[in-house]
Amino acid sequence: MHITQLNRECLLHLFSFLDKNSRKNLAKTCHKLLEVFQDPLLWSLLNFHSPVELKKNNFLLGPALKHLSICWYSERVKVCNTEDWMKNSFQKDFCKRHENTVSDFLLDVCNRCPNLLSLTLSGCGHITDDCILQLLKNCPNLKSLKLENCVRITDYALQAVILHGASLRTLHVDFCRNITQAGIERVREKCPSIMLRAERSASMIPDSKPGKKLMLEKASRKLVQL
């Protein structure tokens, strides 16, 4: 029996065992397999491990997406989370080229994936509080949000959780050095049903760039006023 003689359900099951590149390569072989590749039901879960993967045309974003993970493990990518003064010219160029990659991708997720249930972001040093705000507003069913070493995230993101995270049950903000203890305690007070973990966040040294301290103080005051 040829693979194309299998019914749609069997083909979807077969595709589900393949990674994104293998799915795309198989889809190139005939029109029927291309239709399976383009079936939204195949894309309920996506995992990415490098900025380049986000730019490949080997996956689909749509309402079927329920679980998304963007985690940088490569040593080449980890340089995006080191201090500016430690970076050599190659590292700075690499970070600059990928500065908006994740945030632009998350904007697409906001627009196309309203049924997202879980999001994990690890080592995504360029995402901002606004990214988290937009995700919470556009993905009202989000139950799990896990952030690790996302260095630009501040108490503003925690404020967004309080205001727009009605469905959230799990929140991790580990190693996010610009999160304060006051912000963490406010989430625990306002949202007691959320399982909150903030390993090392409030105990790390925050950024000391001009205006950063003032911005964090304003965020803390806003949280207190809620």
From TrEMBL:
SUPFAM superfamilies assigned to the protein according to its UniProt record, in alphabetical order: F-box domain, RNI-like
SMART domains assigned: LRR_CC
Any one annotated GO CC term: cytoplasm
Ranges where the F-box domain occurs: 9-46
UniProt xrefs under CDD domains: F-box_FBXL22
UniProt KW keywords: Ubl conjugation pathway
Lineage: superkingdom: Eukaryota
Name listed for the protein in its UniProt record: FXL22 protein
Gene behind this protein: Fbxl22
